Fold this protein.
Amino acid sequence: MIKRDLAAYAFLIPWAVGLLLLVVAPLGWSLYLSFTDYDLLSSPQWIGFGNYRELFTDDDRFLHSVLITGGYVLVAVPLQLGAALAAALLLARERRGQGVYRSLFYLPSLLAASVAVSITWRAMFDYGGPVNGVLGWFGVSERSWINDPGTVIWTIIALEIWRFGAPMVIFLAGLKQIPGELYEAAALDGAGRLRKFVSVTVPMLSPIVFFNLLLGIIGAFQTFAPAQLVGDGNGGPADSTLFYALNLYQQGFDHQRMGYASAMAWLMLVALAAVAAFLFRSSRRWVHYGDNT
Amino acid sequence: MLRSSLATFASMTLLLTACSSGEDSTAGKVTLTVAWWGNTARTKATNDAIALFEKKFPNVEVKVRPSAFPGYYDKLNTEFASGAAPDVFQDDQVRTYAAKGLLLDLGAYKDVLRTDALGEEFLAQGTIDGKLMDVPAGTSPMALVYQPKLLESGGLAAPSAGTSWQDFAAQATKLAAALPKGTWALADSSAQHNHLQVFLRQKGKDWFSADGKALGFAKEDLVEWWKLWADLRDKGVVPPPDVTSGSAGGDVSQDPVAAKKVAMSVYGTSVSLPREDWKYGPLPGEEARPGVHLMRSVSWAVNAKTQHPREAVQLVDFLLNDPEAGKALGLSRGVPPNSAIASSLLPGLDPQDKQIADYVDYLREPGNSGAAPAPDPTGGKEIRSDLLTRHTQDIWFGKANIEQAADAFVQEADKVLGRAS
């Protein structure tokens, strides 16, 4: 018995070592750094809660980046999930060439995380880009959508919506799981299409919605690459793309304040844990697991 | 079984150790790593010069690590933190590294690094507390660049050092009326820290106080600077903010000069040289008290923890003082600090590069440029580029008025300086 356990532990060693060295140790180290003043070039100086105190009492840009990121999550995630669900509903029906359509709609999400797409995005919305070209046909005068603090955030939101492929595929799988007899029964009771959607599809799909929402929110909170690449890279113009993760990176690397950046990272972790906990609690009220338990 | 495999392992280890140590002792090869940022032309020129060095010093192997500017310091700092920093590297914030004891005191290697041909005005820019911590690799002083054709079309003569900023603004305004749509008379310098520095120095001030503990100017100076440009922006003499901010992320192709969107601009002379159609001249307001100095573009520094300090300094000396290396490097980092090399380059320069060399010669004449300021304090880069860009953009896009932005700028700059000291 014990011998068999030993074998199991032996097989776990590579994973355990990886977890300890690559996850637990850096995590602990960053927690320690968050209580220090560390500029990378000299050894960390313990300053207790100094970083946290400064974040909450003496850093307007911290608050600003929290608001930008929070606003972005509230707008971009529902829009992206809405687009994903709409596309999934269209693609769920069986028709000729459906596989091709599914691949085509999924394609952007494979590309969109890449640096190249973010740079292309920038070019598309700048002076002389295709977006201005098309809008020009309708008499909209040319402007730079990315160098204007009022519009750049919307181009990043558009990029996020455009990469709806991953949640779409999950929605699609969820839609396929809904038993056909539920729709038949609803039809026999005289339900129309809208009624079927609201009373059958939505509740049956709610676990999938919950899953996508959770992943979407966590991902959106950590938005970094589009913020750095579609914006001017420093959170500009006029701090309009100062996402939380970008602010963290700037503090750590540009301003060489690793302790401060670590404190920001830990606050992000705590905030995400709180949001996830809230979602899980609220899910009892609106997520329907179909097995009535 | 276990014993035999252990024995095999041990013997293999021994064999490997023997191999590597044998190689070291016979060839005595020294390996240096060199890092810099810059465009492809600079990288090619530097590679050529380093190849010459390896030919002359066959016992030294040089590993090059060129990169673009974005991310250069991020990587360098991380390497310093992990003890893997390059032996020789390009830098432009000497005090930040010197203050942490990361730089080799080059003055201690006077027998290797010849400084007699390098002007005092350059050495001063790498000297901290009397110690030479890095050496300028070239100069890129601020100049006025302009397109003579466009100036003529507006019936305007090129401004001179005697032109005041007010007259200059008035002339630019006049020129603006004669230019086609999509071309502006002047580039907006309000967010450019090097341009602001010239303006400040003309008033006898500077970015930082002499001891580096405070800003070297008052809030009112910044307000005056921003007002000058806000006025020109309102009149359409300089491009609107969404055109100007295109190059804020370091995309030099978006620079109004590179994109030829302006007739005139304040400009650093080594950075992505504007080619044909552009001429160089002195900036306005320079006559009474020159604000321009022979600013180093970038410098060479040596890692204090290098395994091979002598060879590393030898490489720096070679890049600065060897005539062949000087020829290979050309103006890739601006006009070289070694005056003999600088003048030896003259005959081979194309007309555009010759203009730059001539401009530097003009600045060398007494009374045409000011003395170099002391190296910036730690945090200087954050204040000069990050803070100035951010608060200028707040004005551009109406998030703050000039007074508010200046107040916020001074307050934040004080905070950064306080943190550093």
Notes: Chain A touches chain B through 26 residues (CB under 8 Å). Chain A has a mean pLDDT of 89. Residues 60-92 of chain A form the longest helix (33 residues).
